[in-house]
Amino acid sequence: MTRSTRFIRAPRAAVYRALLDADAVRHWMVPDGMTSEIHSFEGWQGGGFRISLTYDAPTGAGKTSARTDTFHGRFVELVPDAKVVQAVEFETDDPALRGEMTITYVLTDAEGGTDLAFRHDDLPPGVSPADNELGTRMSLDKLARLVEED
């Protein structure tokens, strides 16, 4: 499991919308050094999504191919302006990277904005918790910049 928190200078409603909007997700849910492609995205409870993240430089570190991590999932639980729970799975031939993960975002009011708590449960054994946490922090920084600009 990995956990992270991020204060965002924006109301909970704005942060919540950015968690469920395909265009917003394309901009923020991508670590530094990667680009994002949204193949499909249904931002409602029970809705599915499929996303590819591609390394900008050749690395051989991709989970799906040498440069790409492709994953799919669904929105398990949505509580407006308060909580988003996703079930996510990498598309990979590597057994160490297989298995359904659960990602939970909890939004609470904070002085001048929103506290966003992130929890990632059931990481496959081939995913480094430290790398996952670093990628999450990069993404949450981008999410903050995106909604704070609005």
From TrEMBL:
InterPro entries: ASHA1/2-like_C (IPR013538), START-like_dom_sf (IPR023393). Residues 9-148 form the Activator of Hsp90 ATPase homologue 1/2-like C-terminal domain. SUPFAM superfamilies: Bet v1-like. Pfam families: AHSA1 (PF08327). Belongs to the AHA1 family. This is Activator of Hsp90 ATPase homologue 1/2-like C-terminal domain-containing protein.
